[in-house]
Amino acid sequence: MIYQNPQLLFGLFAIAIPIIIHLFNFRKHEKVYFSSIRFLDEVKLKNNKKRNIKNLLILASRIIAIAFLVLAFAKPYKPVNKEEKSIKNVFIYIDNSLSMDAISDKGRLLDIAKNKSEDIINSYESSSSFYLLTNNFSTNYPLNKEDISQKITELETNGNIRSIVEILNEKKLISKNRDHIYILSDLQEETIRIDEILDTNDIIHIIPIQTTNNNNVSIDSVWIEGPILLKNRNQDVYLRVTNFDNTKKQIPITLEVNNKIKIKQLLNFTEKKEEEFKFSFNLDSNINICKVSIQDYPIVFDNELHFNLIRNNKIKVTSIVDFNQENYLLNLYRNDTINYDFEEKNSNNLNYQKLLNRDVIIVKENKELSSGLIETLYSFIKKGGSLVIIPPTDLSSPSHNNLLDKFNIYPFLLKDTNAYLINKLHENHPLFESVFDGEIKNVELPEISYHYTQKNGSKSIKQPIISLENNNQFLSHYNYDKGNIYLFNTPINTTVTNFKKHALFVPVFLNIANRSINPTLIYNTISSNNYFISKNNNKGVFNLKNEKIDIIPNCRSINGQTRYYTNNFIQKSGQYKLYDNQKIIDFIAYNYDSNESQLKNTSIEKIKNITNENIKLIEKNKDVSKFIKSTFSDIHYWKSCLIISLLFFGIEILLLKLIKT
Fold first, then answer.
1. Vertex 365 angle, CA 403 and 508, to 5°
2. 56 pLDDT higher than 60
3. How far, in Å, CA of 302 to CA of 22, rounded?
4. How far is CA 341 from CA 229, 349, 360, 514, in A?
5. If residue 332 lies in a helix (H) or strand (E), which one and from where to where?
6. What is the largest CA-CA distance in the chain?
7. How far apart are CA 236 and CA 226, in angstroms?
8. Res. 43: pLDDT tops 60
9. Left (φ > 0), alpha (ψ -120 to 50) or beta: where does 481 sit?
10. Mean pLDDT within 130-148
11. Alpha-carbon torsion, ordered 71, 72, 74, 79, to 10 deg
């Protein structure tokens, strides 16, 4: 115990005053004459005992009252640790993820967190420096009490999600000192991951803001199969919806395309489960702005999902041929001029620069490949193109093996002149995706009259697509850098094989072309360090905007892609347009992260398991202000001393008034 005014303790000598008064009774006695006192002896004895007890009680009351009055003026207090008292930085993290919109018996979780944060602020001195951390990570400068209160009042939920590790790392970027950190969150297990908390020198207070009502139905994801949208075909859209409640539910769902309702139906849930639904419809136009929505309460942030179905430009396919070759590829691609831009070029008349701008190049049974063409094809693959190599009937020139060597593919060795059947289709390869309906049984496959052998294994990543009955390959897929190489081990003209007349021929070559286009995301998810990829990569100043926001994203070229970083400015789900000056060049859909759709709070017992001297838990029923003051403030006792002093002065008065002697 320490006294703020220890010199006043000399006032305790005043205790001697009531003692002296009681030892020497200075009260004057008045004589009363009686004719006989023989009847007063017994009364006198009883009154003396009563008076002695009363005097002792009065004496004790006066001593205690004076002693505590002196202590009150001396101001006793219990100091906190000097190191704790020297801490001036106070970090308040308010979880403003969308799950904080949930309702508890005391109101919206975010509003409860705001009120508790005000109690935290008011528990500190005005000289403290306050920092507000939210999922935006936007405020990294100190605030006074008024400024941080204003920012807390303006705070609203958004789609960003942070883990406990990210929160502490952000704090370290601002201050490396030992500071006070308050975490106010519903502590969702899937997102904040409280069990990953690191050893820290900071003093962390965890304040759970939770609700017991975790029932929810959410739209988790929407996707299409295949990398591109083709014209004149029905589009299949797949939807995943999850019911996190065990109760029976009937949920209305609506699919809108370009603000027109395409599909409206009821989804029936009888138990807690995840279900996939398939919608098939015809696209109205090249640009299709879509939204799928359900009706479910009280959690509503995951009730709708925005996506765009935008048809691709024509796929550019070039076939490099010698004179007088069969035109089986020409007939294939020219039958679909809506989706494919096909051209057949003679090997003696090539514009190498234009080849680099194509999506697919087919080297079709050329007798010899020039060194310039080989270098161009190498650059084409490095850029991310798709190359199909079909060897000629006469493989006397080493140029084809020179080309294979550029991509670390083992060269052609000998010509195996034995006839073989194709006996195995590797159905798991992406080329066969959605080609077959069910198992392949009793299908007559093509045959070949000869093929070129290769050394077993590969220096590059190799995936078999079609195999022969001797386990050699008819068609293989290689990945090199950013590109794809499809290698046939035999010519495919009619003198060697009947493959081009078989039903396999069409899906193989069409899917090679279709998969040459990088899959386009039909929507983006709001998250930290978020970026989107646009199909238009021209250099310039771009604007991404809708009715409420207009931002200029930063462009970076990474792995051959131009990424447009939104710098955490996208906070709301919905549709956005990408402008180049005044021209709309793309449509970008953003949705909230569905990780918080399953509302599963971290249990209090789990939090208690990680608490220690630096990590403390402030439970639901505790008064935040009292807890902080008792933990980090000097404990002053002068008010208690003054109350006790006044209490015993009152007791003295009652003794004097009520007890008659």
1. 95
2. yes
3. 81
4. 15, 19, 10, 12
5. helix 328-334
6. 162
7. 10
8. no
9. left
10. 86
11. 100
Q: What is the pLDDT of residues 556-609, one digit of tens each?
A: 766 445 788 888 788 889 999 999 888 888 899 999 888 778 778 888 888 888
Question: Residue 78: in which H helix or E strand, if any?
Answer: strand 76-78
CB-count burial class (<10 Å; 0-12, 13-18, 19+) for 438: exposed
pLDDT at 564: 87
Q: Tokens 């930290």 sit at which residue?
A: 528
Q: What pLDDT was estimated at residue 182?
A: 92
Q: How confident is the model at residue 37, as a pLDDT? A: 61
Residue with tokens 């494919």: 340
User: How many other C-beta atoms are found inside a 10 Å radius of the C-beta of residue 238?
Assistant: 13
Check whether 263 has a pLDDT greater than 80.
yes
Q: How far apart are CA 158 and CA 107, in angstroms?
A: 18
Please answer whether residues 309 and 284 qualify as being in contact, where contact means their C-beta atoms are separated by less than 8 angstroms. Answer: no
Tell me which residue of 274, 212, 277, 222 sits closest to 244, measured CA to CA.
Answer: 274
pTM beyond 0.70, yes or no: no
Residue 80: which of 180, 154, 12 has the closest Cα?
A: 180
The band of 38, judged by pLDDT with boundaries at 50, 70 and 90, is low
Q: Is residue 281 within 8 Å of 257, Cβ to Cβ?
A: yes
pLDDT digits (tens, 9 = 90+) for 307-355: 998 877 788 999 999 877 788 888 888 888 878 899 999 988 899 999 9
Q: What's phi and psi for 212, nearest 5 deg?
A: -90, -10
Domains and CATH numbers, the chain: 2-79+637-658 (no CATH), 83-212+599-630 (3.40.50.410), 217-312+521-596 (2.60.40.10), 315-514 (3.40.50.880)
Nearest CA among 270, 302, 314, 307 for reference residue 289? 307
Provide CB contacts within 8 A for 643, sequence distance 6+: none
- Give the rounded distance of the alpha carbon of 433 from its chain centre: 31
**Residue 131 carries which side chain, given as an amino acid letter?**
Y
- Check: CB of residue 46 under 8 Å from CB of residue 54: no
Q: Is 70 helix (H, G, I), strand (E, B) or coil?
A: helix
Q: What are the residues whose beta carbons fall under 8 Å from the beta carbon of 286, sequence distance 6 or more?
A: 310, 311
Strand partners, 129: 89
pLDDT in tens, 88-101: 789 999 999 888 88
- What's the per-residue H, E or C state across 17-52? HHHHHHHCCCCCCCCCCCCCCCCCHHHHHHHHHHHH
d(CA 427, CA 411) in angstroms, rounded, equals 26
Which residues fall within 8 angstroms of residue 333, CB to CB, at 6 or more apart? 317, 340, 342, 509, 513
Per-chain mean pLDDT for the chain: 84
Q: Say if residues 179 and 171 touch (Cβ distance below 8 Å).
A: yes
Half-sphere exposure of 436 (CA within 13 A, CB side): 15
Sign, Cα dihedral of 329, 433, 284, 308 = negative
Q: How confident is the model at residue 118 (pLDDT cuts 50, 70, 90)?
A: very high
pLDDT in tens, 476-499: 999 888 889 999 999 999 999 999
Residues 6+ apart with CB under 8 A from 199: none
Residue found by looking up tokens 């970076």 in the block = 556
Residue ranges of E strands in 258-374: 260-269, 273-281, 287-294, 304-310, 315-321, 340-346, 360-364
